[in-house]
């Protein structure tokens, strides 16, 4: 997954937006003001911080040592840093397969949406 593909995938979710609250190099993807992904798209290797259920976070770290680690500068109980399978130039860098990255991004988005107030969740379901 290239940085552009990661960005496009994060923005493909309902009401997802890209923001730069920290600096111009750090993309923060949010749904209704709540962060579900954080990445430096020009980073080498390409990594993304994703929200994760605490029990799943531990299992994922055990299943993918070195590729999924506790979230850097995040609450390590609820966030993982995930190494994506390619760098800024699209060349493979030994990260996770695209399918796994997509599943983890989607899980992160779903967790954040599940934590939104009911009225906001219902608004997301409307066309």
UniProtKB/TrEMBL annotation:
Keywords (A to Z) from UniProt: DNA-binding
Annotated source species: Streptomyces tendae
InterPro entries: YjbR (IPR007351), YjbR-like_sf (IPR038056), YjbR/MT2646/Rv2570-like (IPR058532)
Molecular function as annotated in GO: DNA binding
Protein name, per record: MmcQ/YjbR family DNA-binding protein
